[in-house]
Design a protein that fits this description.
The chain is an all-alpha fold. The chain is built from 5 helices and no strands.
Amino acid sequence: MQAYYYILAVHITFVVSWMAGLFYSVRLFIYHTEANELSDTERSILQQAYGRMEHKLWYIITVPAMVLTLLAGIGMLVVNPALLQMPWLHVKLGFVLLLILYHFTCQRIMKQLQTGIFKYSAFQLRMWNEVATILLVAIVFTVVLKSAVNWIYGLIGLLLFAIIIMAAVKWYKHYRNKHGN
């Protein structure tokens, strides 16, 4: 059982790295997109710089952290297969699957930006960035509260949290527009 805790520590460490990579990648996508509003020279310089930063962050930190997170998670299940009998783990794995889909959607956005395809506004990317926050909160609360969670209240709380986060992003957009930032 001691091995389980070592693997858990590795899992948590790389979850933190993976989430940091996802959060910062989307922040770079926002800056990359906002560079379209600048002069041709500034736009060219900044978009090349953001493209390099996005690529390095993605392939040096974010992807390896995701892979190590998933391998450690699988390792925990191998060492302690009884976890698979726990309903909270099934809920967690559902949220993890959504996070993996989020990850690959971010990768697709990055590749589009690298080729000059801007399908999303900076505001839409700000909203998208909050999806990772919502998934992180859902995963952490599921793991910490386990079977003590009343799933109905948990889902209502998550929905309210999502609404609050999205409202905050909209308020920030309004604030930036009003103050010229």
